[in-house]
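Writing this down once: the sequence line spells out the residues, with the fold written below as integer tokens. This is how one looks:
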Amino acid sequence: MSDALGKRSTIYALDLAELRAKEKQIQRDIEDGISTKGGDITLNQLFEIYMETKSNIRKSTYVNYRNYWNVSVKNSIIGEMKVNQIKQIHIKRLYADLKQRGIEGSSIQTYHVLISSVFQLAVDSDLIRKNPCRNCRKEIKVNPSNKKALTVNEQQNFLDFVKNSNVYKIYYPILNFALSTGLRIGEIIGLRLDEIDMKENVIHIRRQLIYKDFGDGYKFHIEPPKSQSGNRDVPLTSAARESLIEQKKLDLILARRAREQAVDGVKGFVFINSRGMPILPFNFNNMLKNITRAYNKQESQAAAKEHREPELLPHISAHILRHTACTRMAEAGIDPKVLQVIMGHADIGITMNIYNHTDSERIQGEMKKLENIM
């Protein structure tokens, strides 16, 4: 029998009924232009072809795709299987294995998007009839995010502690700036002096700094913002202006600019450390962990002496600072569309989730007022 490409092939079956069924399927593939031999390549080979078609994606995304694949797909049960042999049951088995290994549902969804895209290339190229990933996503359970914004009181306690600490006060400018602008950590450490317009009271977000291995070892790389909506102008609040002025004074006192080093041939980053380099995102989050631990220890001791309940801080990360800043803006009544632009959200739904949570908190607060009446 000849396939859609005119190549002859031989098929085998255990009995006549099976043979007729296979012949019927092959005839159907031929009529629909499906290559009966095109799906003989392995999934790993198809992935390499897929990556060759992605020459227009940013380098960090390319590296992420490869890392995801190499870690959990390449050596899995489906990695070396022929594309035309992989069924929905194999995909679901892979997702179950990932879950058993302790991988979060949100990460498994990322795997699903990548694997499904690879298979879709085969479908669109008439190598296979249908995508085996179809309807597999509903099997992935994603636990609700436990990231919660700091309350107004927690935020003030956090900033007051940092500002008055002999150990951590050098971080006050960058932390106050983060809580005043809602920028992503990559945008904060990637912000340059010439992108701040004090006269017009605005900062221009045009890049982010990421710390990744692009095949030349781990180091900082300048990348465009996370999405097109990430290119934006963010108005400076008085607190943000104060932070920038304080940071400039701090750099002068500590002579940081004299030790400044270039990143991808570029200098002039606003927030640099004692070595003249931007702060590593990992070190930033580690610093937040240390501050929280130190505050909670001091607060617990003070509460014990004063015979009261301690006002402890929850876990704080760079993302929680951003989430907190966004929440404060929503609580202030900033228009959702305006807030979407300020935050650089590609999807208004992300912004509205903040408003929905804020409204819920307000409703709870208003209902509590009844307790004083009833």
User: Anything to note?
Assistant: The chain has 13 helices and five strands. The first helix runs from residue 16 to 31. The CA atoms of residues 201 and 258 lie 27 Å apart.
